[in-house]
């Protein structure tokens, strides 16, 4: 900057303005670039196909892992942006505390081993190039698509954080006991409107949840179909079996379709928060519409996922490309 300033007095004012604009543009360009879908085309041409084939293999091994990988991206992005902060392990040696022990994550998030094994493969073909945050974003997209859902082009170039925040994970990840107004507020805090909340919630068309998180709903709530509640109680006793699992979408637990919205209209939402989206409130009409028009859901879900993937990424020279997703370089 000093060099620029000392030689610029010989220039006209408009030249000066132009240099300043150019300089700012370059500086901003280096510090924070836009994500772009061709980010690894020359630096790691095999990156995306290798991720896709590893995700496909993981899903062949266990269909649920697709749901777990999708949720990992959500829980990464909603806490200080899509920066792989969720992948940083707690480290008693350095007193580092990450997000994995936050309430919404502990005993709950899965798929870290899949991301680690993809990362080590990519480190062997193009060392130090592909970020953990991008791997998570692509793995989420591939999971949805492999399980029958839509696909989309993932903007790339996210970098990995050197920090994590358990407090923000606790405060910003929505919990299953939230009412509609609190769900709308939690998504609004991240820049999403109620329509996008409903679209993204359609992710619960795949995956499982633990008894402890829906027990109160099946024993105490009245906006639940009685036979559905009774069948769930068999695997979720009133005071034991906290970790017993039930599908979020009982119609087709491993297929990414619009059946979640059919469930909601039938009062068969598993979580309290699920049924809130169809409980006589402002989001009922959209749930009905996704129930009737699966293509609309597919399109809206894909667009909302792209938007979620753009939540304050680290780019340019910010952050780092972690070598091991579980720890800062
Ligand atoms: C609207 C607010 C949301 C709430 C309150 C919520 C809450 C939950 C809860 C409580 C579970 C079960 C966790 C467990 O049993 O340990 C779960 C699972 C899941 N969530 Fe959400 N979630 C929400 C939104 C989302 C979004 C936006 C996505 C992705 C775009 C998502 C994807 C998933 C998936 C795929 C699973 C199943 C994971 C697995 O089987 O491993 N959720 N969610
Ligand atoms: C992984 O990337 C390498 C290097 O680009 C490529 O040769 C290979 O075909 C890729 N593997 C898969 C399964 O896409
Ligand atoms: C049902 O609600 C009561 C009153 O809030 C509560 O004490 C009880 O634990 C709930 N039952 C279950 C199974 O969650």
Automatic annotation (TrEMBL):
The active site is at residue 75. Its EC number is 1.11.1.7. Substrate binds at residue 174. It is found in: Secreted. Disulfide bonds join 44-126, 77-82, 132-325, 211-236. InterPro entries: Haem_peroxidase, Haem_peroxidase_sf, Peroxidase_pln, Peroxidases_AS, Peroxidases_heam-ligand_BS, Secretory_peroxidase. Keywords: Calcium, Disulfide bond, Glycoprotein, Heme, Hydrogen peroxide, Iron, Metal-binding, Oxidoreductase, Peroxidase, Secreted, Signal. Ca(2+) 1 binds at residues 76, 79, 81, 83, 85, 99. One of its GO terms (cellular component) is extracellular region. Its cofactor is Ca(2+); heme b. Residues 1-33 form the signal peptide. Residues 34-329 form the Plant heme peroxidase family profile domain. Ca(2+) 2 binds at residues 205, 249, 257. One of its GO terms (biological process) is hydrogen peroxide catabolic process. It comes from the Eukaryota. The record marks 71 as: Transition state stabilizer. Binds 2 calcium ions per subunit. Binds 1 heme b (iron(II)-protoporphyrin IX) group per subunit. Removal of H(2)O(2), oxidation of toxic reductants, biosynthesis and degradation of lignin, suberization, auxin catabolism, response to environmental stresses such as wounding, pathogen attack and oxidative stress. These functions might be dependent on each isozyme/isoform in each plant tissue. This is Peroxidase.
């Amino acid at each position: 900057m000093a060099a620029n300033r000392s030689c610029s007095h010989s220039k006209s004012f408009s030249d000066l303005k132009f240099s300043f604009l150019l300089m700012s543009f370059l500086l901003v360009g280096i510090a924070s670039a836009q994500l772009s879908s061709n980010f690894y085309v020359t630096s790691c041409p095999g990156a995306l196909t290798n991720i896709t084939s590893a995700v496909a293999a993981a899903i062949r091994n266990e269909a649920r892992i697709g749901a777990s990988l999708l949720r990992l991206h959500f829980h990464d992005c909603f806490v200080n942006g899509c920066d792989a902060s969720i992948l940083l392990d707690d480290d008693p040696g350095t007193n580092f505390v990450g997000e994995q022990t936050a309430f919404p994550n502990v005993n709950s998030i899965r798929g870290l081993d899949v991301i680690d094994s993809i990362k080590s493969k990519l480190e062997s073909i193009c060392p130090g190039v592909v970020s953990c945050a991008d791997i998570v974003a692509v793995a989420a997209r591939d999971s949805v698509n492999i399980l029958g859902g839509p696909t989309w082009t993932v903007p790339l170039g996210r970098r990995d954080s050197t920090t994590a925040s358990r407090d923000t994970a606790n405060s910003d990840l929505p919990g299953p006991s939230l009412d509609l107004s609190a769900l709308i507020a939690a998504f609004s805090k991240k820049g999403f409107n109620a329509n996008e909340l409903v679209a993204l919630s359609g992710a619960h068309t795949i995956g499982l949840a633990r008894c402890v998180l829906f027990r109160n709903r099946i024993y105490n709530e009245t906006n639940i179909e009685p036979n559905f509640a009774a069948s769930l109680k068999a695997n979720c006793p009133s005071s034991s079996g906290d970790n017993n699992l039930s599908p979020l979408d009982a119609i087709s637990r491993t297929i990414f379709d619009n059946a979640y919205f059919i469930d909601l209209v039938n009062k068969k939402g598993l979580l309290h928060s699920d049924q809130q989206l169809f409980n006589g409130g402002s989001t009922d009409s959209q749930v009905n519409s996704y129930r009737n028009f699966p293509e609309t859901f597919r399109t809206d879900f894909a667009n909302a996922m792209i938007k979620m993937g753009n939540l304050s990424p680290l780019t340019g020279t910010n952050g780092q490309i972690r070598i091991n997703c579980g720890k800062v370089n």
